[in-house]
Amino acid sequence: MTTKTFTIAIDGPAAAGKGTLSRRIAEQYGFHHLDTGLTYRATAKALLEAGLPLDDEAVAEKIAREVELGGLDRDMLSQHEIGEAASKIAVMPAVRRALVEAQRRFSEKAPGTVLDGRDIGTVVCPDAPVKLYVTASPEVRARRRYDEIVSRGATADLDAIFEDVKRRDERDMGRADSPLKPAVDAHLLDTSEMSIEAAFQAAQSIIDAVLSRNA
Ligand code: DC
What we know:
Strand order of the largest sheet: 2-3-1-4-5
CATH topology of the largest domain: Rossmann fold
Strand content: 5-15%
CATH architecture of the largest domain: 3-Layer(aba) Sandwich
Subcellular location: Cytoplasm
Protein name: Cytidylate kinase
Bound molecules: 2'-deoxycytidine-5'-monophosphate
InterPro entries: Cytidylate_kin, Cytidylate_kinase_dom, P-loop_NTPase
Keywords: ATP-binding, Cytoplasm, Kinase, Nucleotide-binding, Transferase
Organism: Rhizobium etli (strain CIAT 652)
């Protein structure tokens, strides 16, 4: 019998559908799920609320070390301002080190874990037996984010969202520390022309193949 935790690493750019897909996968396999973007967002929110600067790495690291993984809630952390601040502090190596340590501890929970983010397959869990890189064109991702906001009854500007998606991509892919990129052994899942259900089916067959090989 093996007691080793089974980890599924899911990476990709903003609004590619990783969140929905990760939650579905975690539910299907009875695994714990961590949306690692929320750890960056929670750090950013704590800095903003305390009136602390977003460009002081030592201060941001201290706050990052205080983030509790248990109570992270996307609804409370979804504001645009928090996302922008999160992507600024996510370039800081000391902040990343602190949050990666906490994410690695989470990844060891039995019986298995699903972590989604930007650097899970490359940095946080490089030994994960399943790595997925979920992507879609910037146009499709902007449209999905727009539809999601409008479906909540709010108003949105598609062009502004598109520009925001592209800016976020540049920052995530262009940073020196842990830039967003597929791990060499990641399965690429382009969901531009795929429903979330089709993406889930594709992910499930990849995971099941690895699970049966490991059984
Ligand atoms: O996925 P998100 O929008 O909630 O992520 C917020 C910011 O955190 C985003 O700019 C990318 C960054 N991030 C990261 O650098 N590494 C991760 N593993 C997850 C998110």
